[in-house]
Amino acid sequence: MSETSTKTSGSLASKLLPELKQIAASMGIKMPPKSRKADYVAAISQAGSAAKSTSSQEAAAPSRERRSKAQTSAKSSDKISTQNDEQATPAAEGTENIFGDLPRRSRNRNRSADRDGVERRPRVRREAEELSAQDKQAALEALGEAAERRAAEQQRDGEGDDENPRRNRNRRERNRNNRRENPRNRNNRRDGAPNNARADIVDVEDEATDEEVLIPVAGILDISGTNAYLRTGGYLPGKNDAYVSQQIIKKFGLRRGDAVAGAVRSVTEASVRRGQRQHKYNPLVEVTAINGLSPEESAKRPEFNKLTPLYPQDMLRMETTQNALTTRIVDLVAPIGKGQRGLIVSPPKAGKTVVMQQLAMAIAKNDPNVHLMVVLVDERPEEVTDMQRLVKGEVIASTFDRPATDHTIVAELAVERAKRLVELGQDVVILLDSLTRLSRAYNLAAPASGRILSGGVDAAALYPPKKFFGAARNIENGGSLTIIASALVETGSKMDEVIFEEFKGTGNMELRLSRQLADRRIFPAVDINASGTRREEQLFSNEELQIVWHLRRALGTLDVQEASDYLLNRLRKTESNKEFLVSIVRGMQNNAE
């Protein structure tokens, strides 16, 4: 016992005064405020029992470690309190080994302390047998109060993370793993329209859940690169459009220009706060109909580019009333068939807009089953309003005060919409006003290719309008796309002349208006001899064809004004074109006699 007391006194003498104060306070020893280090050593040695002596022996190794740390670094008071707690931990463990049925109160345990405790356990057990029950109870109460007080201080001050190096190491590993997982979780929460570089990886199919609110939506699908949107307010982008993911497009086989009906996911404030909204448009999550058909039926439709084009065979009758001379002249001079690709060549102020309106009203009246689309590009707003009120069809317009990109978007989406209808076997007619302004818009909006034609026209800017105009065709076994476009000439612009020359040979029907007749207020100002249709024999019957050819031979000997005056006067005297042709036959017979 004397040897143990000597060792204990030596270990206490090596401690600093703050450490001795902590030990005395943990053992419940009250000392005067001005007590010295020797007083604390003597008081602790006297108050210590055999159990405390054993605890001090068991804590000799940690004391040596703390002594080396105290000599090499000058830490703050929280470091000293941590070392004192390490001293109390082996003592509590040694006491727990003596009384196995009591609860374990220590929170941390170092590997070296465990090893020392195992080595010294027999000595502690032998010396503990000499203790009385009262000494055992006093030692346990002192150690328990010290451990509880220390645990409360650590919990209050938030110093528990620095107690055990192994524990700190494990926490650092967990934090590092959590930081690695957080970006993945954020990517997984996003709903399918990521940055363009990782579109195929993060783009996940949008599916509706029971808790989400679905809103019915319908519109026309517009695909531009990797982005796709459902235009709900027309053919131009709007604030109520819906985003369509690539998974939805691949799943249902959607194409640009499809009329899609479905449902969108309503974006709530909670999802916006959680960062789940990546697009400013609501995502399309459900498709119920495509062009009026079910998704299963729509998957069986053919592709427009694989359909077989033919010359027009069925004539679109334009004649309506006796006084509608414009449409009657068109039927005689330049007949229009289903699948026609026609040009209305007109100088300024020659009445091309009125001719377009007359054709649109005639088609809507004579062929109500034909889907009529009037596309106005770079036009005056008042003309757009006038066309919307007169024409019983779909009017798609982009006025001249809008940017050139809007003109191109409207034209492309309109022709793609027409192609989707032709794939279903429908007859579609597009009236474009005008092809020259559309080419000008592409010349401004398209990126420069470096090849400039005369008049400042970029060579690459003429391909998209040609693609638009070349879509017109008569499809074998049903369906047709007819495009009648106007082209400006005699405007004084070299660019307009170049554009007209590029499209001059692409059409199979041409209706030319005369500035000379318009100046004399002769309307319709149609140049009879300069107008015509290729393969018109497939549109007329044999009797009609013979009479029309005879009329054209007679009018060919006259100039522009005389031919127009003669034809208009004869048409005014007859109620229909059929009656007019009969009168021509009678004149031929009289001349033969």
UniProtKB/TrEMBL annotation:
Binding residues for ATP: G337, K338, G339, Q340, R341, G342, K349, A350, G351, K352, T353, V354, R380
Annotated Basic and acidic residues bias: 111-129, 146-166, 175-192
UniProt keyword annotations, A-Z: ATP-binding, Helicase, Hydrolase, Nucleotide-binding, RNA-binding, Transcription, Transcription regulation, Transcription termination
Signal peptide extent: none
Pfam families the record matches: ATP-synt_ab, Rho_RNA_bind
Enzyme class, broadest EC rank: hydrolase
GO terms classed as biological process: DNA-templated transcription termination
Biased composition (Polar residues): 46-58, 70-87
SMART domains: AAA, Rho_N
The keyword RNA-binding belongs to this UniProt entry's keyword annotation: yes
Organism domain of life: Bacteria
Domain Rho RNA-BD span(s) in chain numbering: 214-294
Coiled-coil intervals, chain numbering: none
Enzyme Commission number, as recorded: 3.6.4.-
InterPro entries: AAA+_ATPase (IPR003593), ATPase_F1/V1/A1_a/bsu_nucl-bd (IPR000194), NA-bd_OB-fold (IPR012340), P-loop_NTPase (IPR027417), Rho-like_N (IPR011112), Rho_factor_ATP-bd (IPR041703), Rho_RNA-bd (IPR011113), Term_rho (IPR004665)
UniProt subunit comment: Homohexamer. The homohexamer assembles into an open ring structure.
Known role: Facilitates transcription termination by a mechanism that involves Rho binding to the nascent RNA, activation of Rho's RNA-dependent ATPase activity, and release of the mRNA from the DNA template.
Similarity-based family: Belongs to the Rho family.
The protein's name in its UniProt record: Transcription termination factor Rho
Organism expressing this protein natively: Arcanobacterium bovis
Gene name tied to this protein: rho
